[in-house]
Amino acid sequence: MAKDRKNVPQLPAEIRKLIPAERTETEITVVNSRFIAVCAPVFSSEDARAFIISIQNEHPAANHHVPAYIIGHGASTMAYCSDDGEPSGSSGRPILSVLQGSGFGDIVVVVTRYFGGTKLGIGGLVRAYSDAAKAVLNEVPRAEKLLTDTFQFSLEYGMFERIKLHLADQQVSIIEEVFTDQVLIRARCLSNQMKSLEADLIELTNGKVSLEILTQNEETIVPV
Asked: Are 35 and 27 in contact (CB under 8 A)?
């Protein structure tokens, strides 16, 4: 999983794959019960289960750790929730419903409850767990999971500034510049940019550059 800067072109809203940019935690209090909501990006059910266990270990004295997660996006998703000892349908399902309406995928939320001594009833629990999930989603930074190519090429010093400006115009992320007898540039762009970008660079340098694709990453996290 790679993190990148904001200078990668954004996709149209209808095909974005929104995910949490980082772990985020919030807390609300309802009739003396504490509801601590934590969310994070996850890319498999194994990742999600490991995260849930980590939250349980952080709060061993809590009464409940209610999880929900969605792996994937759009029509290809896997969803899970549990009430973790709360009355059936009062906690896990409300959290999952919030997630499903949020536009996020590849996300896990765990709401930890410290019981405050007063029972909330089914309706009160539904509202409390829903509100806890909404609170953390309101605070979490958003990101996209994008397919990117990392590539490199060498060019003459006299072409360097012009090509660097072109890469910036195309919102390509430069990862590294190595100066020897020529300039070696390592960079990253959206995979669907590669064909047109290579054609541009060949034209701008009169065929004096050749792009070498180093890696392709399906899970580049780009803040939005």
From this structure: yes
Distance of CA 143 to the CA centre of its chain: 5
* Three-state DSSP class for residue 7: coil
Q: Judge whether residue 11 has pLDDT over 70.
A: no
CATH of 144-223, picked from 3.40.630.30, 3.30.70.240, 3.40.30.10, 1.10.3720.10, is: 3.30.70.240
- Which CATH number, 3.40.640.10, 3.60.10.10, 3.30.230.30, 3.10.50.30, labels domain 15-140? 3.30.230.30
69-79: average pLDDT:
89
Strands (E), 33-123: 33-41, 64-73, 76-81, 107-114
Give the model confidence (pLDDT) of 178-191 as tens digits: 999 999 999 999 88
pTM > 0.70: yes
Where helices occur in the chain by DSSP H, the ranges are 45-58, 92-100, 121-139, 157-169, 194-204
What tens digit of pLDDT does each residue of 206-219 get?
999 999 999 988 76
Rounded distance, CA 190 to CA 195, Å?
10
CA 35 to chain centre: 23
